[in-house]
Amino acid sequence: MSCVIGIDFGTLSGRAVVVRVADGAELGTAVHDYPHGVLTSALPGGTRLGPGWALQVPADYIGVLRHAVPAAVAAAGIEPAEVVGVGTDFTACTMVPTTADGTPLCELPAFADRPHAYVKLWKHHAAQPQADRINRLAASRDEPWLDRYGGLISSEWEFAKGLQLLEEDPEVYAAMDRWVEAADWIVWRLTGRYVRNACTAGYKGIRQDGRYPSPEFLAELHPGFAGFVADKLDQPIGQLGEAAGTLGAPAAGWTGLPEGIAVAVGNVDAHVTSAAARALEPGQLVAIMGTSTCHVVNGDEAVAVPGMCGVVEGGIVAGLWGYEAGQSGAGDILAHYVPPTSTHERLTELAAAQRPGEHGLLVLDWHSGNRSVLVDHELSGLVLGETLATRPEDVYRAVVEATAFGTRTIVETFERAGVPVHEFVAAGGLTKNALIMQIYADVLRRPLSVIGSAQGPALGSAIHAAAAAGAYPDVRAAAAAMGRKSEAVWRPDPRASAVYDELFAEYTRLHDYFGRGGNTVMRRLRAIRRRAVRQ
């Protein structure tokens, strides 16, 4: 029996799953929580962080290799020698500043108290001013790559975060030899080879048609930024499903796996899930619904979609154009509204007893900013319609509805731009909640298919590992044998959909008023807060 291991590095933990190559059966799994979690207020040593910061400690990722992988193998009841390959996925864009040999700068004593020496997690949004400048300059120069990102680059992506580092801590920037996506850094640790994956290079690194933004463009942003690509970023590109190398001796020691087995090119949690859900054909949109939501869909050609995260040739699977959009908050917004005296389960039960529109509320789901289609992390959440009779379950249901409205905004934007969506496939932790799934079906007015695995990203990484190990000729073949989904599990209720059409129209009015310049109060509030924190 041949097996592969998929390792999913999430926001708060890493998960390893042992998968049988022949049929995709999941034999064993284990989870390792990151000891440091997400750093939003201070570094481990006490150095304070400003608003919008979200950092991590890279040693926590190595802990997943040391603990979760051996535990998953033990749970599967297999011998390590039966493992023929390893695949990984990561949240993106999560950036690690390193020395030339891959050592994170935060592990050097000289930089242990410097925030910019740490990993910038995907939801680090403190680089919004840099993103604004990148977007203004790109538009003024009519940069050809801008349309591939819907006209706007996010503060979450590589260039905005890198520019923030340069401008706020030039000493750390000068000491940094490599600006590395965590998806590639972990593969570097596994193999000893630094191979940049095509997925994050395209979506998060503005690499289109084999090129990055020019030195001239970068110099206009900041003279010291002209060499960013050549000096800090550029690296050989590995295609998805290929082997980045083989497991090296140090990583074999951490994991207990055989040295020399295949290690797949790194990837992103959302994009690998398409393979796990058997949703690689054009028009099959996969929504990975968890802390945040990412929407990925393939198309036959490249078209400009306003406010998307990017369209990349081969970004999801070879031979097609992969589109990505997303919402920066979903499950974490719901968690924010669970009072200490209640639970998700109890609020869901109470909210499910309501009829659509009964609570009288409307929410803008921008508590972590807006990734698509406005691409603005200076925006913030809004709850409209509260009275003294409003209860926690009312707000809870309204937040669920708001995230569904945000998803509908994304789907309709894709379709108006010429990217058809024939099937909506849900994956991620929120699929366990029947109320959420029914509301999404009602709001979207379409059936929802559901991935057949609770470990979508890890299974997707295992599928890529099987292709990299040569067990299948390519990712498509591996996905056909190892992936799974249930079709049209949730169907819309026409009466509920009619009410949600009314509410969605109101959501869209608020969306455009606060998000498209009708009232910039959210941005002004952010600026006032930053001034107050600095005083």
Question: What's the structural blueprint in terms of helices and strands?
Answer:
Blueprint: E1 3-9, E2 13-20, E3 26-33, E4 55-56, H1 59-76, E5 83-90, E6 95-98, E7 119-120, H2 128-140, H3 158-168, H4 170-175, E8 178-181, H5 182-191, E9 196-197, H6 198-203, H7 215-221, H8 228-233, E10 237-238, E11 243-246, H9 249-255, E12 262-264, H10 269-276, E13 284-289, E14 293-299, E15 310-313, E16 321-327, H11 331-336, H12 344-352, E17 362-364, E18 382-384, H13 392-417, E19 423-427, H14 434-444, E20 448-451, H15 456-468, H16 475-482, E21 485-490, H17 494-515, H18 521-534
Key terms:
alpha/beta; Nucleotidyltransferase, domain 5; 19% strand; 535 residues; 38% helix; 7-stranded mixed β-sheet; 18 helices; 21 strands
What's this model, at a glance?
The protein has 535 residues and is an alpha/beta fold.
Number of strands: 21
User: Within the CATH hierarchy, at the fold level, what is the topology of the domain at 274-534?
Assistant: Nucleotidyltransferase, domain 5
Spatial strand order of the main sheet: 15-16-14-13-19-20-21
CATH architecture of the domain at 274-534: 2-Layer Sandwich
Q: Rough shape?
A: globular
* Percentage of residues assigned to helices: 25-40%
Distance between the termini: 63 Å
Low-confidence segments, given as residue ranges, are none
Average per-residue pLDDT, rounded, comes to: 97
Radius of gyration: 22 Å
Biggest sheet record? 7 strands, mixed
EC number: 2.7.1.16
InterPro entries: ATPase_NBD (IPR043129), Carb_kinase_FGGY (IPR000577), FGGY_C (IPR018485), Ribulokinase (IPR005929)
Pathway: Carbohydrate degradation; L-arabinose degradation via L-ribulose; D-xylulose 5-phosphate from L-arabinose (bacterial route): step 2/3
Protein name: Ribulokinase
